[in-house]
Amino acid sequence: ARPRVGYYYTGKTQSQLLTDKVKKMTVSAYESIPVVVQESSSAYDAICAMFLEDVGTLFVVNKDSVLTGALSRKDLLRASLGNQDLSTIPVSVIMSRMPNITLCHSDDLVIDVAKLLIERQIDGLPVVKETGKGLEVIGRITKTNITRAFVELAEGEFE
Amino acid sequence: ARPRVGYYYTGKTQSQLLTDKVKKMTVSAYESIPVVVQESSSAYDAICAMFLEDVGTLFVVNKDSVLTGALSRKDLLRASLGNQDLSTIPVSVIMSRMPNITLCHSDDLVIDVAKLLIERQIDGLPVVKETGKGLEVIGRITKTNITRAFVELAEGEFE
User: Fold this and answer.
1) Which residues have CB under 8 Å from B131's CB, separation 6+?
2) I need a surface site. Which of A8, A134, B70, B117 has the fewest CB within 10 A?
3) Do A114 and B147 touch (CB under 8 A)?
4) Residues A108-141: pLDDT tens digits?
5) Contacts of A114 in chain B (CB under 8 A)
6) Bridge partners, residue B87, by sequence
7) Rounded to an integer, what distance in angstroms lies between the CA atom of residue B45 and that of residue B37?
8) CA neighbor of A114 nearest in space, from B7, B154, B85, B137
9) Opening angle at CA B122, ends B27 and A126, nearest 5
C-alpha cells in the first residue's frame, strides 16, 4: 500500500528543483530599458547620457536604429585620459564595434547571461531582436539585474 | 508503522533548504582583493590604478592605512567632465567620504550585501576590520562577486 504521508515526493533532488527554478529565469523578466546614442554623438554627449539616465552601459545605433556598438564607463574613462576634447571625439571611435559585442535574446536564461558577463569581463549586454535591417536593441541586462535575480532566488521569491 | 521509503524527510520546505544554503554564503568566500590609493593621489593616478588593476571601485586611505573614502568609475567620469586637469585634482576632493560609505564585514551574508548594492545603487563595498586607529580595508565585494555567487547558487555548486 502507498504510504499516507502529508507531502508528495516528486523524485527530484534539491538541486534538481533549484535547477528547474533557474531554468525558468529568463532575460525577459530581469532586463532593463536600453539607453542608446547615435553613432554621430560625441564622447562628451555619451557621458552626459550615462549620468542623465544613470546607466553604466550605452548602446550605439545607426540612422536605421540598428546596433553598431557598445560603450562602457571604462571606454569613456579611457577616452578621458587622453588630452583630447571629449566633445570632438565621436563615439564611433571609442566604442566596441559589431560583431565584437556579446549579445543576448529575451528568451535566453539569466544564468547563461551571468556566465557571459563573468567570462568576458563586461558589465552588461544588449538584448536584441532581429529585424530586416539588422539587430534592434530592445533591452539591457547588467550585473545589477543579476544581483536582483540573486536576491530573488536566494529569498525564494521566485516561483 | 513508519513507511519505508528511500528518502528522508527533514521537515523543511524547499525554500527553507535554499535559505539555509544562502545563510552559509558569507562575504569571506566571495570577496576580492581591495585596491587602495592614498588621499594625496590625483584623479589621474586613480584612473590609471583602475585600469592597471582592472577594478571599478577604489578605496582611499590616509597615511595610517585607515579608510577615508571610496571612488567609483562614476565619480572619476564626473570629474573628467569638468574642464580641469585631472592630474592636479586630489582624490580627496571627488571621493565619497567616511562616514558616508556603505561598509561590510567578512562574516556578513552575501545576500545582505546584494541588497545594499541594489538599495544604495553602488557597484561595490569595502570589507573592513576595526583596528585601534580606525577601519582597515581587507577586501572588496562588488556586483561581479554577486554574479559569481548567483552562478554557484543557481548551478547548485554551493554545498
Assistant:
1) B66
2) A8
3) yes
4) 999 999 999 999 999 999 999 999 999 999 999 9
5) 147, 150-151, 154
6) none
7) 9
8) B154
9) 105
Would you identify the CATH topology of the domain A14-155? CBS-domain (3.10.580)
Q: In chain A, what are the domain boundaries?
A: 14-155
Give the three cell numbers for residue B142.
Answer: 562588488
**How far is A37 from A51, CA to CA, in rounded Å?**
13
Neighbour order of strands in the sheet with A96-97: A36-38, A57-61, A67-72, A96-97
How near does any CA of chain A get to the CA of B24, in Å? 11
3 state SS of A38: strand
Is the Cβ–Cβ distance between A35 and A113 less than 8 Å? no
- For the segment A29-67, what is each residue's pLDDT rounded down to a tens digit? 999 999 999 999 999 999 999 999 999 999 999 999 999
Number of A–B residue contacts, CB under 8 Å: 131
Q: Which three cell numbers stand for residue A52?
A: 542623465
Q: What is the pLDDT of residue A2?
A: 60
Residue that is written with C-alpha cell 562628451 in the block:
A44
Residue whose entry in the numeric block shows the C-alpha cell 544604495? B120
Q: What is the pLDDT of residue A84?
A: 82
Q: Which of residues 34-93 of B touch A (CB under 8 A)?
A: 44, 47-48, 50-51, 54, 56, 73-74, 76-78, 80-81, 86
Q: Which residues pair with A104 in a beta bridge?
A: A127
